[in-house]
Automatic annotation (TrEMBL):
It comes from the Eukaryota. This is ATP-dependent DNA helicase. It comes from Adineta ricciae (Rotifer).
């Protein structure tokens, strides 16, 4: 199970990570990241995830 939240504080409260960081996005980088089919790093990180909990506190 992967636990995500929109803010760092909310993520810390649930022992998870931010939505952006889980997708490899850097906050305020100014350059959007394009996720393409075959992105092996992202696929590998998400392959075994069966449940996704997104908490908005």
């Amino acid at each position: 199970m992967r636990k995500l939240a929109p803010t760092g504080i909310a993520a810390a409260e649930i022992g998870g990570m931010t939505i952006h960081s889980s997708l490899g996005e850097q906050r305020n980088s100014g350059k959007p990241r394009t996720i393409k089919p075959g992105d092996l790093k992202l696929e590998k990180e998400w392959t075994l995830v069966e449940y996704l909990l997104i908490d908005e506190m």
